[in-house]
Amino acid sequence: ENEEDAEGEHGGGRRERGELLLSVALGQVLSLLICGIGLTSKYLSEDFHANTPVFQSFLNYILLFLVYTTTLAVRQGEENLLAILKRRWWKYMILGIIDIEANYLVVKAYQYTTLTSVQLLDCFVIPVVILLSWFFLLVRYKAVHFIGIVVCILGMGCMAGADVLVGRQQGAGENKLIGDLLVLGGATLYGISNVCEEYIVRNMSRVEFLGMIGLFGSFFSGIQLAIMEHKELLKVPWDWQIGLLYVGFSACMFGLYSFMPVVIKKTSATAVNLSLLTADLYSLFCGLFLFDYKFSGLYLLSFFTILVGLVLYSSTSTYVAQDPRVYKQFRNPSGPVVDLPATGQLEPSVTYTSLGQETEEEPHVRVA
Fold first, then answer.
1. What sections of the protein cross the membrane (predicted)?
2. Residue 356 CB: number of other CB atoms within 10 A?
């Protein structure tokens, strides 16, 4: 029996390590997609003078509409597009506007402030997500989670310091206060959007979230495009290279939006935003070859510091305040471990990492 228990513990440990590595790896896939978004945007704006952030977002929302909104439209019953709109149309309308403006504010900020300021202030999304998760999703954290978050932010600070040392200060910086306020506003809206996304993908479905974002995002970004960027679009020197860059940007953005709900459901909105801190470093490493950026050893230190913070954060599970079983386990880790049922009545039902093996609390029923 002792040997079986030891084997079970080793098996559980391997599973936990595997889930930890998987959650970190999934976050890095998202970071690489954001790196692709940043590189294509940089080529469009600097090499071809195509400053069209709203149009770029509009292309993504159209793709989401074509894939996910049409999927909802052909479904039957309560998951049909019309049925969802009847129940929650105004909520998704607000969420769509929030998502559009979050993208717009952060991109707009680059015209007024420096890259380093954007990188640092964009971290404001992390405390926003933590607070919203605490109050609305009722997520509770251990001390190790906060240590991991602090380590990740220190890694970001290290990267910003390296930017200053090597002189990588892209950005006009003429109206720095305006730019900084735009970043803070965008980070706040991103935080709201991410927490809403986590709630929806856990309690409704990923397709419903993406379908509704595609529907309202296409509509409102189309209006914003017609008002604000129709003149910029006429200035774009269209050719196959620019077309390819727009296709590349749209593919990366569509991949990010499609894959992020999967990662959020597997981990959490907080974990995802911590993972995305490495996106700027991937962009930098690409820039060393593409844009002749100067290298600093602090960049590598920053990268590994953020990864250490991610591992610390993901190494243990959070719990939901209103579930007494998870709370009891959280306070008494040596006691019996109970898995939550997949379809519970609790709202929201949030489990970020595996809570362990199932224990038999009820007798099995044999069916002849």
1. 20-39, 59-77, 89-107, 119-139, 146-165, 177-195, 207-228, 240-259, 271-291, 297-321
2. 16
